[in-house]
Design a protein that fits this description.
Elements: H1 4-14, H2 31-42, H3 49-58, E1 65-71, H4 77-84, E2 88-95, H5 98-110, E3 116-120, E4 132-138, H6 147-157, E5 158-169, H7 179-190, H8 213-219, H9 230-237, E6 239-245, H10 251-254, H11 264-267, H12 272-288, E7 296-302
Parallel strand pairs: 1-2, 1-4, 2-3, 4-5
Antiparallel strand pairs: 5-7, 6-7
Helix pairs in contact: 6-9
């Protein structure tokens, strides 16, 4: 069980979704970046990972799925889309932050979406009643320290043959980037003009460096606590059908709090897409030549029915 003081800190950090991009947008806000990620995961720039997952499911059984679990749901966008798009009938969504649960409940209510039951829950000591046809983790499990316990619960609550969809950060624990990664990030930042490296909080994003693991933990005790172990522990408990890395080790950091500069509709800068295309090309090249690892991955795993 997470220490109550840590829960209070996590609630403070994640309880207000509007604060998450107060200093600027993140890379995934940009359609071109999402298309790049899609290419690496699904092979099709216009097909996102969730759509790809449901195509896989539909080869075995008709949709919608009946009852699913969403871990660390945050503001609730994923479960609202699952219901609204007719992909599932019922969702149980959990998050350790009571504040963000309240935000998610209000958003579902305002959208007129029913079929979602929200509850506070700690992934380190998850207490949910199955069965579930699928479990969804989107940027969730890297906040869990007790991976063995969590994956044991996932296996227990899944129906035989049930699915886990995982889309998560699986890079270095506590964001302890390698020296080579830091070097490449700074090289990419140097390609950008001054106007594109200032965030909305007034800081200049040149001279990027990692901060100590203790600083990361002080900001959020759950942040990337055992991220490097996620895929290994998952494979110990479930049958992994497919796992595809999609980078994120460079652009996720280069564009952090700066991505708004590359959307001309927002920034008014027509050169934004050209610079973004250069960054994407460089990132793809470094990834293809093995000079940077994948810090993010999508996996589909199963509760083996035999």
């Amino acid at each position: 069980m997470t220490d109550p003081r840590a829960v209070d800190r996590i609630d403070e950090v994640w309880g207000d979704p509007l604060s998450w991009e107060a200093a600027g947008w993140q890379a995934s806000r940009l359609p071109a970046v999402r298309r790049m990620f899609n290419r690496h995961v699904t092979g099709e720039a216009e097909t996102d990972a969730v759509t790809w997952f449901f195509r896989r499911v539909a080869r075995e059984r008709p949709l919608p799925l009946g009852r699913v679990l969403v871990l660390a749901c945050g503001g609730g966008e994923l479960e609202r889309s699952l219901i609204a798009e007719g992909r599932v009938r019922e969702v149980v969504a959990v998050d350790i932050s009571a504040r963000v649960i309240a935000v998610a409940e209000a958003a579902a209510r305002d959208a007129g979406i029913t079929g979602i039951r929200y509850r506070t829950g700690d992934m380190n000591a998850l207490d949910v009643d199955g069965p579930f046809d699928a479990v969804f983790s989107s940027s969730a499990i890297h906040h869990c320290e007790n991976l063995e316990g969590l994956f044991a619960v996932i296996r227990r609550v899944l129906v035989p043959g049930g699915w886990l969809f995982l889309d998560d950060y699986v890079g270095p624990d506590r964001f302890q980037w390698t020296d080579a990664q830091v070097l490449q990030i700074n090289r990419l930042l140097q390609l950008l003009p001054d106007r594109m490296v200032h965030n909305m909080a007034g800081y200049t994003r040149r001279g990027f460096d990692r901060v100590g693991a203790d600083v990361v933990a002080a900001h959020d005790p759950s942040e990337a606590v055992r991220s490097r172990d996620i895929l290994r522990v998952m494979a110990d408990h479930l049958t992994v059908e497919v796992c595809r890395g999609y980078g994120g080790n460079l652009l996720h950091l280069v564009l952090s709090n700066l991505a708004q500069h590359f959307d001309p509709d927002h920034s008014g800068d027509p050169s934004g897409p050209e610079y973004l295309a250069l960054l994407i090309e460089a990132s793809d090249h470094l990834r293809a030549t093995g000079r940077c690892q994948d810090d993010f991955a999508v996996a589909i795993a199963r509760h083996a029915s035999n």
